[in-house]
Amino acid sequence: MASTQLIFPNALPTIPSPLSSPPPHYPFTSQLGPLPHSKRPNLLTHAKKKNPWLDPFDDGAAPEMEYGSLFTDGKQAEDPRPPDDPENPYGFLKFPQGYNVELTMLASKVRGDVRRCCCIVSGGVYENLLFFPTIQLIKDRYPGVQVDILTSPRGKQTYEINKNVRWANVYDPDDYFPEPAEYIDMIGVLKNRYYDLMVSTKLAGLGHAAFMFMSSARDKVSYVWPDVNAVGAGLLLTETFIPPSSNLSEGGYNMYHEMLEWLGRPARNIPREPVPPLKVSISKKLREYVEGKYKKAGLEKGKYVVIHGIESDSKASMQSRGDSDSLLPIQVCAEITKEMRDVKPLFVIPHEKEREEVEETVGGEASIIFITTPGQLAALINDSAGVISTNTAALQIANALEKQSIALFSSEGKGRLFVPNAEDKRCVIIPSKNGKLAEIDVETVKNATKVFERSTVFA
């Protein structure tokens, strides 16, 4: 039996001959054409053909790459890639179930770009309101970043007047014994959002640090306890800040200055990012709703002064955790507003049960409005002639809207702490002389209310 021999002449790789390259003493052969005495003029064309068998990964010469501008220098650019699914906020729905997709590019990892940021804010309305400059700093430092908020139910209402926040989720970080199902569900929500940066204003121990660690965020930044309760937290966090006391709100207006200093730090040929002022934004729908409320109370735009900080046990008082003595009895408020003529005082109550007491003290013709959300309060202050308030969120909103305000504090130190540069903010600070807000000098406050008369004349 004759042996069968299979021959595949085309299957073997064609290895170019050494004669295919031009001789060394003809440096310009490829430009001048084939040699005049060459018998194989097609060798030059075969010389430039790639051989995939020798190096299958050789795609030719790599283009020049500027690693400096791509990896190290300057701010991040906004993400130019459109989402795969425009209706999906995450931008992807094409991956099979069970696959963990790597979303961050190498350049983004090296540069430290932040595309998604989560902020866990401890406290109520006042603390969340003072966090607005931090959110704006993050937006300025990382262009195109998406900011989400995790805070208490009262704190979530504050972001109705913040245009820089994508989502605000309710999860009270100050709850030391959360429900296990809620705790696990929130960890799953945070993991599925692929955050690049997570910042927290809650003083973290090992428990809160573990919560942030399990969220799988790339960088985890938080305040920690200034005592032994912070043991173990630093092992699970990327960066930590130690406040001067266990109550962060005692820092006043600049209560987050340690975090702001780190977020705005100079890096990659970028100078230090300045801390922006506190600003709020009010929607048209909210303005129209509040306008209907104060017109129903018989008031006109720009012809009333908001009185805020009436003593109450309601959670809607919007006072700061760093100033426990920041609510004024209604009897003192009635004495202050008794001689106001050009503008009409509007008493804002945090609960309907306070209405009857206000009517009995001030009179049946008193203008009273029931408002509990910071968004409605901001719209009310925006249409007013000014604000007379204790140390509540109404004072900070008035300063953000550049409205004339009179701030009543229990001490002069508290006034300087919570309202720095009061003259530039059109704010008159009146402290109590004996350290008790209820015993503030009423005559001094009455003389200060004349600024609203001048403001209505030049309006």
Automatic annotation (TrEMBL):
- GO biological process annotations for this chain's record? photosynthetic electron transport in photosystem I
Any Gene Ontology CC annotation: chloroplast
**What residue spans carry the region label Disordered?**
1-38
The biased composition feature labelled Pro residues covers 15-26
Stored SUPFAM superfamilies: UDP-Glycosyltransferase/glycogen phosphorylase
Show the Gene3D superfamilies listed in the entry: Glycogen Phosphorylase B
Among PANTHER family, the record links this protein to: PHOTOSYNTHETIC NDH SUBUNIT OF SUBCOMPLEX B 1, CHLOROPLASTIC
Write down what this protein is called: NAD(P)H dehydrogenase subunit 48
**Naturally occurring in which organism (per UniProt):** Cypripedium formosanum
